[in-house]
Amino acid sequence: MTEELFKEAAYSKTADAKVYRVMDEGVILDRTIFYPEGGGQPGDMGSFRLQDGQDLAVTNTVKTSNGILHILNANKGEVIVGQDVTMNIDWERRFRHMRMHTALHLLCSQVEGAVTGGAIGAQKSRLDFNIPGERPEKEELEEKMNTLIADDHELSISWITDEELEANPDLVRTMSVKPPMGTGRIRMVRIGENIDFQPCGGTHVKSTVEIGAIKIGKIENKGRQNRRINILLSD
Asked: Which of 12, 50, 73, 141 could make an S-S bridge to 33, C-beta 3.0–4.6 Å?
């Protein structure tokens, strides 16, 4: 399986790896800094540089049963198993995803109700909440979010066991997607001392101030109790 460097080194923009397997759609490496799509976060894009100087475009990254597959938009005839490659991420796109993902965790901390769905984008992101009663006030929510962002709360990563998560089911905010279990440990993301703490395999910024100011977009009714809250980065 592919070593998932992005879980511990989200800020790595480039790294070396070896080709583990060549498939019709692309290649699997022994290690990667590319995040594979999942948990609402898109897969990374970027490029590989081969030893002869050739660059191959990576158009998406996905998980497979054989490891993390980097989908290539080019002829793979020059790529062979065991070959060294240098990975280069489309950093501007990835960093916007990191900012958005952390902003959605902050949104979780400010809205009561279980999360029923969500999606992360470079331009706009959303979370759907199961909220009985009135939907949140847009301007008030935006002010609270931007205050938390500006207060520069640190993010930290820790790990808990499957048994610890089972004993604390309230840590899981999502109704439709459960964190992967079975490996013996689960990655947790904490914001500040007690702002938010939940399982997550995605990439995040180091501190809330890196998110930058956000805007709350539409708050939509998607059912009797389902409310969709859209957020945008101000830049």
From this structure: 12
